């Protein structure tokens, strides 16, 4: 393993590069993080310094090194039914309200439910929502369901698309009954069943870039990602999210996050112990 240290100048230029390509702000003191996450790449490519690795990435026309750096630097921490309360909120408040509002009396027209998980990581968030829907009797047969998951990380999107999890990942947040019901053993891992897999679509997307061709959503989850961004970027992203949300739509953010310093487009609503956001004039 390499013991190469990042110099102060290299850290400055590397963190600027990472900010430009992902919006992830590596503040002073995070040198260890850069070294821990990028030293395997440094070794593999035979680079003698972090400056050399940066140059290689900047001149890599195929952008493979850029994507590898994003995969290494982004924190993909997630688990099934993370924080529990957002899923209870969806089950007991948001989805029943939405179904009520979207139900049509026209025979043959299915009510629509469109949900976007921005920065969904490896898919646990979207699949937890799919399980919640099925357990409420909200099936693709009766509803027009769009569950859309995006993330900047190629590796995270690939795993979400395969729906393949190791035994540690399925042990986090997933009750044994749900594991048995919705997964099939696949070698030493577990694969999500087609019934759930087919309810979701995944796509690579960088929240720093313009949001194009996404369509409109009834519910947006943007959880545990804004913490990595600057206030200015957070403000711009919330404005972009607002444009994708129906006027009566719902925004869910992470349990430890707040919109207070970032946007005043939304107001918080409380249901039991959970908070969600809607546009001001709801
Ligand atoms: C900590 S995970 C949160 C996953 C999930 N939302 C949850 O709460 O469990 C943060 C995710 O944000 C993604 N991410 C970081 N920067 C991003 C960006 N600029 N655009 C889109 N996704 C980004 C990372 O790749 C990572 O998968």
Number of individual domains? 2
Helical content (DSSP H or I, runs of 4+): 40-55%
Q: What name goes with the CATH superfamily of the largest domain?
A: Vaccinia Virus protein VP39
Shape: globular
Largest sheet: 5 strands, parallel
Task: Write structural notes for this entry.
With 282 residues, this protein is α/β, with parallel strands linked by helices. It has 2 domains: 8-73, Chemotaxis Receptor Methyltransferase Cher, domain 1 (Orthogonal Bundle), CATH 1.10.155; 85-279, 3-Layer(aba) Sandwich (Rossmann fold). Helices cover 41% and strands 20% of the residues. The protein is built from 11 helices and 10 strands. The chain has helices spanning 8-22, 31-44, 50-58, 64-73, 85-102, 124-135, 154-162, 167-171, 176-182, 194-197, 231-244; strands spanning 112-118, 144-151, 164-165, 183-186, 189-192, 200-204, 217-222, 245-253, 266-271, 274-279. The protein has a 5-stranded parallel β-sheet. Helix 5 (85-102) crosses helix 6. The model has no long low-confidence stretch (mean pLDDT 95). S-adenosylmethionine binds at residues 22-24, 74-78, 82, 119-121, 125, 151-153, 156, 206-208, 223-225, 228, 254.
Attribute tags:
Chemotaxis Receptor Methyltransferase Cher, domain 1; alpha/beta; binds S-adenosylmethionine; single chain; 11 helices; 3-stranded antiparallel sheet; 10 strands; Rossmann fold; 2 domains; 282 residues
């Amino acid at each position: 393993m390499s013991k190469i240290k990042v110099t102060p100048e290299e850290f400055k230029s590397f963190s600027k590069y990472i900010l430009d390509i992902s919006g992830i702000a590596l503040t002073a003191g995070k040198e260890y993080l850069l070294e821990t996450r990028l030293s395997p790449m440094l070794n593999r490519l035979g680079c003698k310094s972090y400056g050399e690795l940066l140059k290689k990435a900047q001149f890599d026309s195929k952008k493979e090194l850029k994507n590898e750096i994003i995969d290494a630097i982004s924190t993909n921490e997630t688990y099934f039914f993370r924080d529990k309360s957002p899923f209870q909120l969806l089950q007991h408040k948001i989805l029943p309200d939405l179904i009520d509002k979207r139900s049509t009396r026209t025979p043959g027209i299915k009510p629509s439910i469109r949900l976007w998980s921005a920065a969904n990581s490896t898919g646990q968030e979207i699949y937890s929502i799919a399980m919640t829907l099925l357990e409420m009797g909200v099936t693709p047969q009766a509803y027009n369901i769009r569950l859309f998951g995006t993330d900047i990380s190629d590796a995270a999107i690939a795993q979400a698309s395969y729906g393949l999890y190791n035994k540690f990942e399925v042990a986090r947040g997933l009750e044994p009954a749900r594991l048995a019901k919705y997964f099939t053993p696949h070698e030493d891992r577990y694969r999500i069943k087609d019934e759930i897999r087919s309810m979701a679509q995944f796509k690579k997307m960088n929240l720093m870039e313009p949001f194009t061709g996404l369509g409109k959503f009834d519910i947006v989850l943007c959880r545990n990602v804004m913490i990595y961004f600057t206030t200015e970027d957070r403000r711009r992203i919330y404005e972009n999210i607002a444009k994708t949300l129906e006027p009566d739509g719902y925004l869910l953010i992470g349990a430890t996050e707040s919109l207070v310093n970032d946007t005043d487009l939304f107001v918080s609503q409380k249901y039991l112990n959970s908070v969600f956001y809607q546009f001001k004039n709801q």
